[in-house]
């Protein structure tokens, strides 16, 4: 493949991550990444680990791709918002927003904001998980952890 004859360092998201879940399902066919992988708690940490080690390889959410990392083509398709939305990029999944009933107030404003930006323009471009520059501070974390979502949905009669 080129480059130095060196051991490849594999960087992975931790198992509680949606990025990990997507990678495991769409790329790994539900097989686990090697136990030798260095697990990271955030996409930003993966970017840092890969960009600081020329022998490292990892995966991140599309919104975290920047000049310090190199996105790879899959089936000769470059990852972008447009190729993900058109479903040409095979390593993409949809994001679902759940509300308890019809959204109102600030929740409705957030849903409306996300829906108007669905055509390929990221709603919070550059946010990278730090909600301090978001119009809706804390919106990504509103107290519900990803592992709590199935129980939350079940209690409200929402089927996956």
Q: Could you characterize what this model shows?
A:
The chain is mainly α and 160 residues long. Helix content is 26%, strand content 6%. The chain is built from five helices and three strands, in the order E-H-E-H-E-H-H-H. The protein has helices at residues 18-26, 43-51, 81-85, 105-116, 149-155; strands spanning 9-13, 38-40, 56-57. A three-stranded parallel beta sheet has the order 2-1-3, with helices on one face. The longest helix is centred in the C-terminal third of the chain and has 12 residues, at 105-116. The chain is globular and about 55 Å long.
Topology summary:
Layout: E1 9-13, H1 18-26, E2 38-40, H2 43-51, E3 56-57, H3 81-85, H4 105-116, H5 149-155
Parallel strand pairs: 1-2, 1-3
Bin the strand percentage: 5-15%
The helix tally amounts to: 5
Query: Which spans have pLDDT < 50 for at least 5 consecutive residues?
Result: 120-144
Say what oligomer this is. Answer: single chain
What does the average pLDDT come to?
Answer: 75
Overall outline? globular
Alpha-beta classification: mainly alpha
As a percent range, the share of helical residues equals 25-40%
Describe the strand arrangement of the main beta sheet, using strand numbers. 2-1-3
Q: How many strand units? A: 3
What composes the largest sheet? Answer: 3 strands, parallel
Write the element-wise H/E pattern from the N-terminal end onward: EHEHEHHH
Distance between the termini: 42 Å
Rg on CA atoms, Å:
17 Å
């Amino acid at each position: 493949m080129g480059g130095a004859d060196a051991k490849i360092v594999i960087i992975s998201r931790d198992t509680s991550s949606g990025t990990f879940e997507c990678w495991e399902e769409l790329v790994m066919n539900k097989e686990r990444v090697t136990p030798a992988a260095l697990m990271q708690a955030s996409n930003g940490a993966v970017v840092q680990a890969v960009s600081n080690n020329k022998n490292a390889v990892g995966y991140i959410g599309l919104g975290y791709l920047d000049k310090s990392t190199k996105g790879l083509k899959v089936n000769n398709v470059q990852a972008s918002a447009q190729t993900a939305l058109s479903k040409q990029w095979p390593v993409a999944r949809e994001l679902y927003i759940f509300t308890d009933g019809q959204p109102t107030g600030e929740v409705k404003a957030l849903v409306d904001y996300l829906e108007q930006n669905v055509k390929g323009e990221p709603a919070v471009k550059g946010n990278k998980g730090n909600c301090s520059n978001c119009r809706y501070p804390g919106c990504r974390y509103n107290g519900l952890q990803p592992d709590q979502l199935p129980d939350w949905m079940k209690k409200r009669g929402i089927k996956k």
